[in-house]
Structure formats: structure tokens, C-alpha cells
Write a sequence for this structure.
């Protein structure tokens, strides 16, 4: 049995994921050329970037539409597509006292990265930069709020507190909630 799934239809060259055993997928181009090995358990097309994939070892990575690595497997513990960017975290050991600490602030100040479609870090949550993980990334830095979209372009920059960002009914319209 061969299952064809996950086509990239808006690119000049169409690619698709194919499986022979319903367990692992490989990337093929429109001419039928195999671009990757049958290594991927899951995949998600990221518009304009490639595929967010999970390999046999449950490690996340991003590959281009040509099958080339953009973000290598295992560099980040988690990867999540957001527009043409990614949220990422690294594996860190959490101390017992940190587990017991509750936070009400939705802005994270550690272990969250916003990456562009090339895998480069745009922002890193730390003591100077907080990140709100919303439908689009919201950055709080230098007493300003920045909403990113597409490849990391600024959609909004200002002093008003941003509470959330969402897309209106899966369209290109964006709703920004202010305090």
C-alpha cells in the first residue's frame, strides 16, 4: 500500500510525503524523485518554508521543500510552527523549587525562542525579553510590545499591553487584544 499525502501546492515545484507502511514518510518531488529517506513519523507543511517533521527518534526538525535540513533534529526539544516562524524550546532540567513556583504572567522569560523560516533565532526569552506564545509571537522588550508575522516582520510595535493575538476565522485578518 502506498499513501500519498501532504502536498505543497503553492510552490513552483510540488512536493509530497509518501509512505509505504503507514508508519514512516519520505519526501518526494513532482517528478517522483525521492528527496529524503523514510524517516518521518509525522509532518506538517509550513507555508513558504518546508515541513516540520518528527523523526524515528521523536526528534523534531524542519526540512525544506527540497529535503534539506533547515533546523537539525535534536537542536530543540520542541518546535511549533507559527505563520512562517517557529516557537522552540531546549531541554532544560527543572529544579524542584522551580516546579513549585506558579506564574500568572503569560509572558515567558526563559527557554522560549522565536525562529524565522531559516531557523535563525529572532528573539530569545530572557531577563530582558519576554515572549507571549500566541497565534503570532508577541515580544516585550525595552518597554515595548512587538507583534511578529510572516518571516519575523513587525505587525505592531507600541507601548500598549498586548494580551493576545489571533487570526480571524483562519483568514489573513489578525485581531490584537490590548489591555
Amino acid at each position: 500500500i502506498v499513501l500519498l499525502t501532504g502536498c505543497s501546492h503553492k510552490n513552483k515545484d510540488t512536493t509530497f510525503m509518501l509512505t509505504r507502511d503507514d508508519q514512516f514518510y519520505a519526501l518526494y518531488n513532482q517528478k517522483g524523485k525521492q528527496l529524503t529517506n523514510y524517516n518521518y513519523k509525522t509532518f506538517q507543511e509550513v507555508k513558504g518554508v518546508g515541513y516540520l517533521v518528527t523523526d524515528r527518534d521523536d526528534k523534531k526538525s524542519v526540512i525544506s521543500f527540497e529535503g534539506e535540513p533547515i533546523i537539525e533534529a535534536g537542536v530543540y526539544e520542541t518546535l511549533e510552527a507559527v505563520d512562517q516562524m517557529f516557537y522552540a524550546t531546549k531541554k532544560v532540567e527543572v529544579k524542584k523549587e522551580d516546579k513549585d513556583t506558579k506564574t500568572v504572567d503569560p509572558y515567558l522569560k526563559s527557554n522560549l525562542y522565536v525562529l524565522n523560516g531559516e531557523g535563525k533565532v529572532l528573539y530569545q526569552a530572557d531577563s530582558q525579553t519576554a515572549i507571549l506564545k500566541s497565534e503570532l509571537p508577541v515580544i516585550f522588550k525595552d518597554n515595548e510590545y512587538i507583534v511578529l508575522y510572516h518571516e519575523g516582520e513587525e505587525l505592531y510595535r507600541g507601548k500598549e499591553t498586548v494580551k493576545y493575538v489571533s487570526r480571524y476565522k483562519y483568514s489573513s485578518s489578525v485581531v490584537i487584544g490590548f489591555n
Summary: The helical segments are 96-100.
